[in-house]
Design brief:
The complex is a heterodimer of chains A (about 110) and B (about 120).
Chain A: E1 5-7, E2 10-14, E3 19-24, E4 31-37, E5 44-49, E6 55-58, E7 61-65, E8 71-76, E9 85-92, E10 99-101, E11 105-110
Parallel strand pairs in A: 2-11
Antiparallel strand pairs in A: 1-3, 3-8, 4-5, 4-9, 6-7, 7-8, 9-10, 9-11
Chain B: E1 5-7, E2 10-13, E3 19-24, E4 31-37, E5 44-50, E6 53-56, E7 65-68, E8 75-79, E9 88-95, E10 107-108, E11 112-116
Parallel strand pairs in B: 2-11
Antiparallel strand pairs in B: 1-3, 3-8, 4-5, 4-9, 5-6, 7-8, 9-10, 9-11
Classes of the chains: A mainly beta (about 110), B mainly beta (about 120).
Chain lengths: ~110, ~120
């Protein structure tokens, strides 16, 4: 079983602050996805990164895939209360579509 | 397009009882997944179907869990008998085809929250 470890597990910050969430593994993934999940809902895909070293931006969110395709980070600039939620990373090992999820980072942004 | 539909939204049962969850994927999506998400954790894959065939059920506790997708469209997941540790949210997801890369992202339903007392 391929493990994805996310850190920190919990993060509580004030509106306007910046933050970075990490997703690490000892395994190589063919692609890595980031999801955001709100209470009572299913995860919603934010981005997929495929190439080692790839950086993708989604408004105030910046996603990076490690050069070795074993780790990824999500950076949020000037966090807003609407960014509150559970952020999940998930790795695809390209073997029959086995998508392994990390344990998630629960973010709370206080106004 | 309509999203992934799941029912019921909530279910409370006593241990040793049985329960069934239903999922209707997005129309045309060949691949269907059932995930278990225990409070405070990320989702764990239970079973994956490609049309009406099982692709992976290695993490499904087969002594008490079963799932089917007989006509390759909607699916049911059953637990019999339930244990306290089965309390979790059961998420169904679908994708256009196998391979979770850029071309075939997963779309999740809102889940069924199961409480076993």
């Amino acid at each position: 079983t391929q493990l994805l470890e996310q850190s920190p597990q919990f993060l509580s910050i004030q509106e306007g602050e910046n933050l970075t969430v990490y997703c690490n593994s000892s395994s190589v993934f063919s692609s890595l996805q980031w999801y955001r999940q709100e209470p009572g809902e299913g995860p919603v895909l934010l981005v997929t990164v495929v190439t080692g070293g790839e950086v993708k931006k989604l408004k105030r969110l910046t996603f990076q895939f490690g050069d070795a395709r074993k780790d990824s980070s999500l950076h949020i600039t000037a966090a807003q209360p609407g960014d509150t939620g559970l952020y999940l990373c998930a790795g695809d090992n390209n073997a029959g579509n086995m998508l392994t999820f990390g344990g998630g980072t629960r973010l709370m942004v206080k106004p | 397009e309509a999203g992934v539909a799941q029912s019921p939204r909530y279910k409370i049962i006593e241990k040793r009882q049985s329960v069934a969850f239903w999922c209707n994927p997005i129309s045309g999506h060949a691949t269907l997944y059932w995930y278990q998400q225990i409070l405070g954790q990320g989702p764990k894959l239970l079973i994956q179907f490609q049309n009406n065939g099982v692709v992976d059920d290695s993490q499904l506790p087969k002594d008490r869990f079963s799932a089917e997708r007989l006509k390759g469209v909607d699916s049911t997941l059953k637990i019999q008998p339930a244990k306290l540790e089965d309390s979790a949210v059961y998420l169904c997801a679908s994708s256009l085809f196998q391979g979770a890369g850029n071309n075939s992202p997963l779309h999740f339903g809102n889940g069924t929250r199961l409480t076993v007392t």
